[in-house]
Amino acid sequence: xxxxxxxxxNRMQIKEVPDPKIINDTDVLLKIEVVGICxxxxxxxxxxxxxDQIVEFPFIVxxxxxxxxxxxxxxxxxxxxxxxxxxxxxxxxxxxxxxxxGRENTCRNLKxxxxxxxxxxxxxxxxxxxxxxxxxxxxxxxxxxxxxxxxATIGLYSIKQANLSTGxxxxxxxxxxxxxxxxxxxxPLGADKCYMTEKIDxxxxxxxxxxxxxxxxxxxxxxxxxxxxxxxxxxxxVLECAGQQETLDQAxxxxxxxxxxxxxxxxxxxxxxxxxxxxxxxxxxxINIRRQNNCTQQCIDLIAEGKIKPDFMVTHRFKLEQxxxxxxxxxxYADGVVKAMIYVGAPL
Length: 348
Hints:
alpha/beta; Quinone Oxidoreductase, Chain A, domain 1; Rossmann fold; 2 domains; seven-stranded mixed sheet; six-stranded parallel sheet; 27% helix; 28% strand; globular
């Protein structure tokens, strides 16, 4: 089969690799249809690492995908051949203390698609996953929507972790796919006013069109002053989706006492910092997001019901053979890209 393989920093080739095999009695062989490029994929492409997860080349990335069931092992009951499925890229053990406590996203033995040292990603024609990671969708979602479900679940989980009360006023700092996913989930989960910030003008326009009440570009305006002018008491929650020190500092300034700072973005640096006096005096709660936890089916249902509408995030489409072009586009934030999709089995 063909796969898009990282061969070095900023290098990718389309290669013939061995077909995956069904090994366990609950394995499912998938025909990959559509794969979305995530910021974490680009981290590995540009730097070869995220924290202590270091790529050993060659390596296949990718974890946001929609697929069709190609074959199943003997004991698979969740899906059948021909089913269209959303793929949850996480594979918890279901046996450790974290899993038994309902924290499968922090499973001590977690395997995740496209993570170095764990398992190859899904930028290939075929892939094997356990049935527990598959969610059949029939015709209720398009293939694009099915692939967008993975980032949308992170937005949904992040908003749930913000624990919003009805009528809450929030900010989302960063209008990339994850920030926009947070915006889409915010309204159904109780948010009133949603303020967004973003440095890329094209994304500012997209965020405004997607329903943000205010979108500010910190390169062009004082977003802290702007938001506090409209919300002088501060905001109930801020979701930091850029992974930048400056956005963390802005979040602390615009939160009200007792507010919740939700860290969603993944910084490239090993350490971040806070002005302890400010976060202590405000008694801010700081919440880290580790992917998502048991939100996939709820997210599928919200998309199917039209309460979350992620389709607008797809701005660019590529064939598998064009994967490197897609990664370069996303890495350079070029041409107003929000989400680039790779069409592996599905027609472009």
